[in-house]
């Protein structure tokens, strides 16, 4: 189909299509309005009008029976197959009907495909039409492929883009994804219901009592609930990928926090596998002891059983997530039966054996007796809390497999919060029931009954006919305080509790065995720790981290073989708590940063509550085990420093970035309220480098005195046709700023497009900077080719110096012997890189073609070649300057290359000669002083040269030394030059005269008429009158060069007062001649002129 602007009628070929809707542009005539109103239902929204005559002009009309379909389309926009439902060009009279509402346009309607990331597993990313596509003139003779009009009209990109995605879709088609119940709820419940429920909760109730026991459970639940709320807010603020807690934290707080917590969280899960398996093995060994079936000894039996168990669990995990999920469901059923078995047992009438062991069914007297605490020696509220709290963890079990969930944004909040609620009810229910049925101490002796007439002294057991008073003086084996198997005794069928213990331990071990590799794989994929990249690879339709599974297996086996986990257990709990703390802090930080991108769909959160949750988690870490908390913080801090130092090349839009922006903005605004003070002056420079890589030496010397102390903006002016300039400018902005960052240059890049160079610089001088952070110094390179340059270039060059002075901005002109511009060198380098890239691409194409020959044929070769991104620059190991050295330098100007790096090198012992001839406020002295503070220049001493009278040399030297000491500027020597104003020698003056000869008018040698005519035709030339009027100044420039040759020929750097040319009085060519003769045949020279406002002070 070709684009057609005629009014031909295209009828809808599928009139019954369920997603079909159209927008009619309703004529303003009454008849047309009536016709449409008869056939369409009124829209159910408030119409917006822009004036009386346009009111009700636009209205949506539906085909008969299609309102419901339209509503479905709006609700399921992502799933609507728009390309199949719409026709590109339906027309009625003179109105076009397109997906983009009503007329023929490439402007696109909002679609989810435009907002996806490249390589998204949820669907292909589509590029919308760029602003240039819409704004620029439409190219003529565009050939549109048949069937592509819909795509172009809707911004789907050019035909052919759809071929990039099918392979990924095929790979992911068979992936197993879980809903919120099986994927999150089941896992969280199994992880939270651990062994603690069956063998420690009764002891906690015995120690703390029912009241404090419920408070302990409640306090633990507060921590997990606050974390769950924060996690829900983060999860619903965008699409969640695989990686669980690591993904949430890293995308919120950045790679530094995410990378540090991700590694220890994955390790904690791996060691947790060993903890849970050892718990399971200990229970089995206890059963073997009872039946006298020990294999070797208790320790080795634990190792044997634990090793076998881990191998079986590894097999289930490697078999795939689907098998692991089925195993989890079976374990949950067993666990629920065991819990139900306990509650049923509490209402089954107790027998004498159970009564002797302290179980009397529900009794008000037992409830009252057990309600208050009865801590034994060495125990207290916080110690008991520390023992219970690990039982409440496990809320991240669902989030850890976020990559295997159908809809993580919905599943994680719903499943996690419901799991917390259900498990909390179960914990509190078990605590209250066991506290109301079982006494704290019992002997287990059925003969310890009450003799009639005995005084019970308020004892609940005594009131029920049993005397357990001897437990006060000697240890007993039964009761809440002494027997960890109380739930087995109370339950209707004891072995079911043992099965519940097995289920709790194995399910937690299985969840940790799955979580650790998934989190670790996500961490490795992000390449934060480059040495761990090996473990990023996934296998199969579910991208299973098999390498991570085996690493987790090795870690778990190592700790199982140690069989001493009592020391490591508190550290593991603290690792989990550290993750909880950072999740809470992430939610707070994202809210506090006030980023417009923070828009969680889960609205039940508050940033201060999240901060409270983070603080609470940190406090609980110290309550559980203070030394383990310290170890956790030390490890996390070390990893944070490591990741910060490595600076991984990622950009996740973290809240840290958002807060940095807010902080910078606040500081900039606050700075505007502070008046400038001379003590806080620092050079803030605009450097006319063009592209920063094209004049590196100019940037290096400027960066030397602005780094860490002042603003530095690398500026480029694009001159030429506006359309081409803007396009070139926009395309290079990010690349050039990235070059500065890569080369560790603390500077900004700015560019403008202008009709002429001077206009562009004038714009930069006026508009650059922000608030108090505005440039006060212009740095430019010396125009070495001024004699061959066109007139306009000289006028622009001298003009920007005049403009800078007009804006009260200081000027620094830098001259080195070989010039600054190395763009030709870079061009040759780029050409060589492109040739090498093309060669590698061709080799890869031929190699792939050999592999696929016979299956795809010659067509596959061309398609493969077309997809190779040949234009992508090869990764460079170092900066452009360093790579130049490794190229075929014989093809380049070697001296130019060396000169371009001269300020990168460390300057040896030498001098910086400061010729402070005119007082400009002190900038001429401040810049060299700052240079001596830099590492590369610290071995250079300052020598100060000032003008003076021959008969007052010593006095003026003392006065200058006094001034410098008050300024606290160290110097090696002071020289008073008394013969500046004498005439230069004839040879030097002859060189100057020959230099300006081509640019002189020589009007005095011509008649008046001819002279006037020449002035009108060449007003830029140097007149005899001008040259005579400033002859003394010209003498001074030539004489200064002689003195510089005499005194500073061996200096590392010369800093010299820049002569000022009075506007309208000194011609541009004469001024350039001054600069040329002044700096001729010298080491690197900085011509400096401040804005004549103080930048130095000796007041405190």
Can you describe this structure?
- With about 1100 residues, the protein is of the alpha/beta class.
- Helix 9 packs antiparallel against helix 17.
- The longest helix is centred in the first third of the chain and has 36 residues, at about 255-290.
- This is Solute carrier family 12 member 1 isoform X2.
- It is a multi-pass membrane protein.
- It comes from Ursus maritimus.
- One of its GO terms (molecular function) is sodium:potassium:chloride symporter activity.
What can be said about this structure in brief?
The protein is α/β, with parallel strands linked by helices and 1100 residues long.
Ordered list of secondary-structure elements with their pairings:
Elements lengths: L21 E4 L4 H10 L18 E4 L5 H9 L6 H4 L4 E3 L2 E3 L33 H5 L13 H5 L12 H7 L7 H13 L3 H4 L1 H35 L8 H10 L1 H36 L7 H21 L2 H27 L4 H5 L7 H8 L9 H8 L19 H30 L22 H4 L22 H5 L3 H32 L20 H17 L5 H25 L14 H18 L1 H21 L8 H18 L12 E3 L8 H11 L5 E8 L2 H21 L5 E7 L2 H11 L9 E5 L9 H16 L3 E6 L7 H30 L4 H11 L12 H6 L8 H7 L9 E6 L7 H10 L7 E8 L5 H14 L6 E5 L8 H11 L11 H10 L6 H6 L1 H17 L5 E5 L10 H12 L5 E5 L11
Parallel strand pairs: 5-6, 5-8, 6-7, 8-9, 10-11, 10-13, 11-12, 13-14
Antiparallel strand pairs: 1-2, 3-4, 9-14
Helix pairs in contact: 7-13, 7-17, 7-20, 9-16, 9-17, 9-22, 9-23, 10-11, 10-20, 10-22, 11-12, 11-20, 11-21, 11-22, 11-24, 12-21, 13-17, 13-20, 15-17, 20-21, 22-23, 22-24, 22-25, 23-24, 28-29, 29-40, 30-31, 36-40, 39-40
Pfam family, one: AA_permease
Catalytic activity: K(+)(out) + 2 chloride(out) + Na(+)(out) = K(+)(in) + 2 chloride(in) + Na(+)(in)
InterPro entries: AA-permease/SLC12A_dom, AA_permease_N, SLC12_C, Slc12a1, SLC12A1/SLC12A2, SLC12A_fam
């Amino acid at each position: 189909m070709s684009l057609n602007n005629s009014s031909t009628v295209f009828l809808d070929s599928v009139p019954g299509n369920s997603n079909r809707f159209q927008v009619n542009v309703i004529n303003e005539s009454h008849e047309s309005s009536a016709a449409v109103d008869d056939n369409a239902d009124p829209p159910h929204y408030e119409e917006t009008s822009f004036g009386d005559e346009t009111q009700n002009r636009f209205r949506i009309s539906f085909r008969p029976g299609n309102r419901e379909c339209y509503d479905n389309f709006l609700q399921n926009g992502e799933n609507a197959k728009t390309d199949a439902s719409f026709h590109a060009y339906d027309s009625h009279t003179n109105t076009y009907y397109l997906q983009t509402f009503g007329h023929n346009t490439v402007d696109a309607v909002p679609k989810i495909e435009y907002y996806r990331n490249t390589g998204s597993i949820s669907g292909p990313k589509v590029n919308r039409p760029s602003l240039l596509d819409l704004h620029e003139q439409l190219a003529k003779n565009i050939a549109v492929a048949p069937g592509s009009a819909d795509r172009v009209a809707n911004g789907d990109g050019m035909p052919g883009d759809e071929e990039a995605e099918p392979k990924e879709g095929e790979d992911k088609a068979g992936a197993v994804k879980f809903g919120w119940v099986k994927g999150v709820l089941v896992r969280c419940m199994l992880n939270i219901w651990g062994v603690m429920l069956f063998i420690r909760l009764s002891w906690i109730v015995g120690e703390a009592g029912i009241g404090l026991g419920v408070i302990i459970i409640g306090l633990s639940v507060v921590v997990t609930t606050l974390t769950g709320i924060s996690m829900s807010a983060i999860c619903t603020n965008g699409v969640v990928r695989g990686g669980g807690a690591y993904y949430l934290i890293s995308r919120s707080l950045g790679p530094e926090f995410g990378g540090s917590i991700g590694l220890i969280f994955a390790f904690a899960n791996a060691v947790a596998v060993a903890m849970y398996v050892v718990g399971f093995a200990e229970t089995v060994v206890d059963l073997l002891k009872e039946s006298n079936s020990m294999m070797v000894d208790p320790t080795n039996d634990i190792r044997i059983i634990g090793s076998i168990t881990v191998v079986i669990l590894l097999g289930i995990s490697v078999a795939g997530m689907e098998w692991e999920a089925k195993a989890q469901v079976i374990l949950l059923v067993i666990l629920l039966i065991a819990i139900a078995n306990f509650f049923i047992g509490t209402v089954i009438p107790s027998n004498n054996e159970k009564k002797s062991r302290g179980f009397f069914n529900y009794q008000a007297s037992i409830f009252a007796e057990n309600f208050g605490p009865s801590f034994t020696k060495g125990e207290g509220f916080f110690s008991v809390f520390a023992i219970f709290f690990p039982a409440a963890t496990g809320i991240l079990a669902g989030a850890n497999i976020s990559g295997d969930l159908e809809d993580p944004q919905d599943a994680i909040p719903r499943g996690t919060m419901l799991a917390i609620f259900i498990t909390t009810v179960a914990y509190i229910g078990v605590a209250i029931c066991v506290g109301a049925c079982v006494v704290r101490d019992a002997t287990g002796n059925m003969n310890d009954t009450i003799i009639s007439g005995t005084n019970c002294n308020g004892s609940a057991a005594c009131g029920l006919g049993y005397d357990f008073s001897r437990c006060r003086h000697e240890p007993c084996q039964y009761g809440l305080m002494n027997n960890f198997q109380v739930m087995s005794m109370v339950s209707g069928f004891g072995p079911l509790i043992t099965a519940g213990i097995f289920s709790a331990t194995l399910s937690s071990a299985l969840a940790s065995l799955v979580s650790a590799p998934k989190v670790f794989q996500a961490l490795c994929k992000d390449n934060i720790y480059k040495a761990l990249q090996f473990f990023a690879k996934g296998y199969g339709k579910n991208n299973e981290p098999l390498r991570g599974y085996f690493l987790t297996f090795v870690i778990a086996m190592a700790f199982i073989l140690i069989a001493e986990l009592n020391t490591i257990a508190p550290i593991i709990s603290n690792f989990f708590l550290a993750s909880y703390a950072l999740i809470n802090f992430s939610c707070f930080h994202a809210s506090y940063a006030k980023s417009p991108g923070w828009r969680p769909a889960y609205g039940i959160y508050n940033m201060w509550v999240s901060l409270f949750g983070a603080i609470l988690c940190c406090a609980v870490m110290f309550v559980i085990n203070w030394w383990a908390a310290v170890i956790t913080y030390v490890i996390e801090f070390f990893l944070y420093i490591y990741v910060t130092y490595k600076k991984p090349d990622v950009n996740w839009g973290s809240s840290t970035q958002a807060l940095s922006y807010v902080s910078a903005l606040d500081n900039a605004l606050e700075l505007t309220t502070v008046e400038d003070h001379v003590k806080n002056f620092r050079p803030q420079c605009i450097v006319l480098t063009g592209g920063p890589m094209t004049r590196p030496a100019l940037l290096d010397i400027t960066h030397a005195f602005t780094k860490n102390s002042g603003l530095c903006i690398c500026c480029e002016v694009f001159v030429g046709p506006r359309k081409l300039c803007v396009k070139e400018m926009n395309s290079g902005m990010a690349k050039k700023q990235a070059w500065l960052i890569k080369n560790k240059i603390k500077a900004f890049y700015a560019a403008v497009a202008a009709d002429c160079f001077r206009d562009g610089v004038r714009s930069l001088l006026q508009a650059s900077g922000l608030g108090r952070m505005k440039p006060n110094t212009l740095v430019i390179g010396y125009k070495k080719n001024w004699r061959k340059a066109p007139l306009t270039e000289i006028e622009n060059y001298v003009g920007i110096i005049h403009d800078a002075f007009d804006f009260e901005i200081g000027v620094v002109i830098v001259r080195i012997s070989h010039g600054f511009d190395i763009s030709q060198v870079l061009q040759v380098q780029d050409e060589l890189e492109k040739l090498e890239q093309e060669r590698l691409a061709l080799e890869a194409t031929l190699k792939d073609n050999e592999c696929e020959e016979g299956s795809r044929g010659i067509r596959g070769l061309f398609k493969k070649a077309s997809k190779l991104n040949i234009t992508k620059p090869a990764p460079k190991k170092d900066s452009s300057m360093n790579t130049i050295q490794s190229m075929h330098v014989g093809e380049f100007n070697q001296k130019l290359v060396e000169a371009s790096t001269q300020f990168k090198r460390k300057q040896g012992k030498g001098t910086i000669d400061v010729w402070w001839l005119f007082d400009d406020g002190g900038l001429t002295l401040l810049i060299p002083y700052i240079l001596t503070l830099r590492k590369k220049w610290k071995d250079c001493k300052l020598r100060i040269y000032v003008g003076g009278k021959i008969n007052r040399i010593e006095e003026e030297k003392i006065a200058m030394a006094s001034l410098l000491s008050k300024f606290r500027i160290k110097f090696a020597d002071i020289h008073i030059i008394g013969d500046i104003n004498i005439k230069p020698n004839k040879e030097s003056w002859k060189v100057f005269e020959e230099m300006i000869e081509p640019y002189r008018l020589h009007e005095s040698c011509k008649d008046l008429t001819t002279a006037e005519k020449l002035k009108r035709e060449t007003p830029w030339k140097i007149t005899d009158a001008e040259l005579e009027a400033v002859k003394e100044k010209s003498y001074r420039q030539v004489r200064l060069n002689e003195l510089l040759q005499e005194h500073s020929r061996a200096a590392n750097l010369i800093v010299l007062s820049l002569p000022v040319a009075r506007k309208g009085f000194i011609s541009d060519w004469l001024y350039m001649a001054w600069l040329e003769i002044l700096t001729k045949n010298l080491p690197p020279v900085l011509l400096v002129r401040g804005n004549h406002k103080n930048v130095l002070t000796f007041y405190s």
